[in-house]
Amino acid sequence: MKVLRGTEYRELEISGSRAELQALGQALQSGEGQIDVPKDPNPEPYDSSLSRIDFRVTSGKITMSTTGETLKIQGAQEFFAVLADHIESFGAEADLDSHIHIDYFPGHDYLTEGSESLVLCFDKATQAAPDESRTA
């Protein structure tokens, strides 16, 4: 799994295999923890590669922000459950060439204003057969 960040638009990309994205969703269900991720020496078209995801239960809607090389995700457990479900479902069901954006907009169900935008996609380098982990 990789976590990349573009500073111009405050956008994050998390990419990985089906199993990695599903595991991230499952980990977020707990609302507490950290995941170390390998840095990508060539993060283009992004500016940098992060080395850790840190998630903590606090209050209120989800905030995604970066500090140094760490993606910080904080918010109430009920909102973690929604974000986790989106990530886990994407990992399990999406086409391997697809991606989704998780962006704040006024009235967003679970993100706070000022939260960094997130793109979820599959890391093509980690993919096996096109139907990997999919069931009929």
Automatic annotation (TrEMBL):
<protein>
    <submittedName>
        <fullName>Uncharacterized protein</fullName>
    </submittedName>
</protein>
<feature type="region of interest" description="Disordered">
    <location>
        <begin position="29"/>
        <end position="50"/>
    </location>
</feature>
<dbReference type="InterPro" id="IPR029083">
    <property type="entry name" value="Imm32"/>
</dbReference>
<dbReference type="Pfam" id="PF15566">
    <property type="entry name" value="Imm32"/>
</dbReference>
